[in-house]
Automatic annotation (TrEMBL):
Phylogenetic lineage: Eukaryota, Metazoa, Chordata, Craniata, Vertebrata
Keyword Phosphoprotein: yes
GO cellular component, one term: cytoplasm
EC number assigned by the record: 2.7.11.1
The species this protein was found in: Polioptila caerulea (Blue-grey gnatcatcher)
Similarity remark: Belongs to the protein kinase superfamily. RIO-type Ser/Thr kinase family.
Region spans: Disordered: 1-20, 124-161, 496-515
Gene that encodes the chain: Riok3
Record field: compositional bias (Low complexity): 1-18
Protein's name according to its UniProt entry: Serine/threonine-protein kinase RIO3
Length: 515
């Protein structure tokens, strides 16, 4: 939209739209008015107008509105309240633009015009959206609910004699219309009209209703667009705030861009900022943002639901918090691995569903996944033994099973293999822990056998080598059956003793318990 910049920059270029000249209050003197429908709808224009306005209001924070990927220089984003308000304003402005369009459509060229002024989001600064825990979209629900309107009985009138009021009575009808605004989509702002003795004419009501419906459709479209937008926009406003804060606090220097967009997470690269006395910030960081679109996580329930470490909390949590638990889980698991000396990203900080860790790679280029790198046969063999060793350490020292181990989640960096992506990792005594381990073994074994490592154990041998179990079945089906029998034994033990075995034992030794 080329004309947008011009329109925003030069408010007096050309005459304003028809409604402006007819407006009995005259044109507002401070804001610039766009020229066409397309302009009114333009997000870019809205943004520019907003920037202009904010420039006047808060000159020092405006630069932060340009996007989440900014350096810490010259920007004062210290006020969360301010940032939250800016986001709210962006929302409100979009809403107002749509309202203005609707108003224009209804009034057309008519001499008498209806003003939607009262339905505008007059004062965006009023919203209380500073508190991090509050979902600022939820705060838009109107707490000032009117009493339900008295209904007109079937016969169509109430009262007696000359006091009869029918359902067509103007006052009743008007009040009813006002009350019915409640049924508009929750995103639709009806102002505080509901709480007042407001009487809407049918015409105005219908116009508003129409507007509410199209608004609902539009916001659904907008939502969809947001969901599928480019990587930079893949984070929601709340996440953007978290990222702002990290840059603003000096912990991160710059967030440079996106490394990966998966179904469940988006990973960004960032240059580390200033280390403090108690926190060393690596020169390059990876930021893993767990997606707050919930449906992607449904099929992962089984990992966390049955993980006793999270069991008590699981049932009490709302979906948003469950997603935070994934991030938390990844953090805990990475820390265990770090303590065991397994090459993996080092945790820097966890904030809600955002995990910052050290970056595996250099100069913004992430280390290649094992599936993408061509190794010499010598390196391939080296990698294999390293992984065998890591799997054993993971199992024995960290008491973990990766549960998504494959050439996709191993990076080749500095002549060795690094394990990543451990949010789904579980303890071996997880009800499906051994099955997950067997699957990991199958992936690793197949990858290295195909990759020409003659020494590579087959999946069953690898499973025994990692777990220390001695399952003797010589075919996959029986092997799997024995694994499941062990898992069941553990579950029964939990049922009977209220406690899990801390390790599995294959040789009939009494089980060892956690203290
Ligand atoms: P998921 O597969 O669940 O989306 P991952 O943790 O596997 O999430 O991250 C996705 C991709 O991002 C990885 O395949 C890797 O390329 C990159 N990545 C993740 N963490 C790091 C890191 N610490 N350093 C470098 N690259 C990383
Ligand atoms: Mn992965």
């Amino acid at each position: 939209m080329d004309s947008v910049g011009v329109a925003a920059a030069a408010p007096d270029a050309g005459p304003g739209p028809a409604w402006q000249s007819k407006c009995p209050w005259g044109a507002p003197s401070t804001t610039s008015i766009s020229c066409s429908l397309a302009d009114v709808m333009s997000e870019q224009l809205a943004k520019e107008l907003q920037l202009e306005e904010e420039n006047a209001a808060f000159p020092e924070v405006v630069a932060a509105a340009e996007g989440p990927f900014i350096t810490g220089e010259n920007i004062d984003t210290s006020s969360d309240l301010m940032l939250a308000q800016m986001l709210q304003m962006e929302f409100d402005r979009e809403y107002d633009a749509q309202l203005r369009r609707e108003e224009k459509k209804i009034n057309g060229d008519s001499k008498v015009s209806i003003s939607f002024e009262n339905y505008r989001k007059v004062h965006p600064y009023d919203s209380d959206s500073s508190e991090d825990e509050v979902d600022w979209q939820d705060t838009r629900h109107d707490p000032y609910r009117a009493d339900k309107p008295t209904t007109t009985p079937r016969r169509g009138f109430i009262g007696k004699g000359k006091d009869i009021t029918t359902k067509h009575d103007e006052v009743v009808c008007g009040r009813k219309n006002t009350a019915r605004m409640e049924n508009f989509a929750p995103e639709f702002q009806v102002g505080d009209g509901i709480g007042m003795d407001l009487k809407l004419s049918n015409q105005v009501f219908n116009a508003l209703k129409q507007h509410a419906y199209s608004e609902e459709r539009r916001s659904a479209r907008l939502h969809e667009k947001k969901e599928h937008s480019t990587a930079e926009k893949a984070v929601d406003p709340k996440t953007r705030l978290l990222l702002y804060k990290m840059v603003n606090s000096g912990m991160l220097e710059t967030i440079t861009g996106c490394i990966s967009t998966g179904k469940e997470s988006v990973v960004f690269h960032a240059y580390g900022g200033n280390s403090t006395e108690d926190k060393v910030i690596p020169p390059e960081c990876a930021i893993k943002v767990f997606k707050t679109t919930l449906n992607e996580f449904k099929n992962r329930d089984k990992y966390i639901k049955d993980d006793y470490r999270f069991k008590d909390r699981f049932s009490k949590l709302n979906p948003r918090k469950i997603i935070r638990m994934w991030a938390e889980k990844e953090m805990h698991n990475l820390t265990r691995m770090q303590n065991a000396g397994i090459p993996c990203p080092q945790v820097v900080i966890l904030k809600k569903h955002v995990l910052v860790m050290s970056f595996i790679g250099q100069d913004q280029v992430p280390a290649p996944k094992l599936k993408d790198v061509t190794l010499s046969s010598e390196d391939m063999k080296k990698a294999y033994y390293q992984i065998l060793n890591m799997m054993q350490q993971l199992y024995r020292e960290c008491n973990l099973v990766h549960a998504d181990l494959s050439e996709y989640n191993m990076l080749w960096h500095d002549g060795k293999v690094w394990l990543i992506d451990v949010s789904q990792s579980v303890e071996p005594t997880h009800p499906h822990g051994l099955e997950f381990l067997f699957r990991d073994c199958r992936n690793v074994s197949q990858f290295f056998q195909k990759g020409g490592v003659a020494e590579a154990l087959n999946e069953r041998e690898l499973f025994n080598a990692v777990s220390g179990l001695n399952i003797t079945a010589d075919n996959e089906v029986d092997f799997q059956a024995e694994i499941e029998a062990l898992e069941k034994m553990n579950e029964d033990h939990v049922q009977n003793h209220g406690k899990k075995l801390s390790t599995f034992s294959s040789d009939g030794d009494p089980p060892i318990y956690d203290e």
